[in-house]
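Q: How would the structure tokens look for this protein?
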Amino acid sequence: MDRLRALPDPDHLPALDPAYLSATPATGMGPNDHPPRILLLYGSLRERSYSRLCVEEAARLLRFMGCETRIFDPSDLPLPGAPGDEDHPAVVELRAHALWSEGMVWCSPERHGQVSGLMKLQIDHLPLSMGGVRPTQGRTLAVMQVSGGSQSFNTVNTLRLLGRWMRMITIPNQSSVEKAWQEFDDNDRMKPSSWYDRIVDVMEELVRFTILTRPHAGALVDRYSERKGAGVVLSKATDLSAIALSGQSVR
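A: Here is the predicted structure in token form.
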């Protein structure tokens, strides 16, 4: 797997005041036996992509809060439905990272009042179910957008719709950065601002929701219609809802 972007200066947070952000924001909210695994997707291939730069800022913040992060490079993804697309190495790798993740961050530029084609392309390559496993269902999701003009919420609203369709737990907070070209310095780092502070808020909330829902992810996507279709009759040993309520583990 070689389509993960290296994160420049991963521990350098010049716009953050660490006195106001805990490195363990989800303490006491759920099991934290391993770092939350977060996959970050961006929606532009420009050399200076502001959606990518926002994702990089988000990844640094998530690392500060104890997460393991991966940023996927979508530059060679084929079109869905193209001959051989299911076996294309980029598609195979994207799906593997999705299966690895417990949560995701999606950040897209606003294009014609909507998400970019590249952002939708990545989501279109993530099936609801794949060989009995679910690359997105039950995972947490934070949505962000960047705009060249005034602030808008068209893109994050569409990302929320897509997240719901993918059966993800989209957190309440979100980020929309207006005039993104003004918000980064010559070193491609986000300047201190209310826009940056909102990204901090969103990532802090994502960590909390990921830890909070971690022990219940299986129960949250356990559905009557799917059990009925598969002929899986409930018993005390397989009822995920009952298991979650009792605090038992699935054997």
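The first strand starts at residue 37 and ends at 42.

The chain is about 35% helix and 10% strand.

Upvote if useful.
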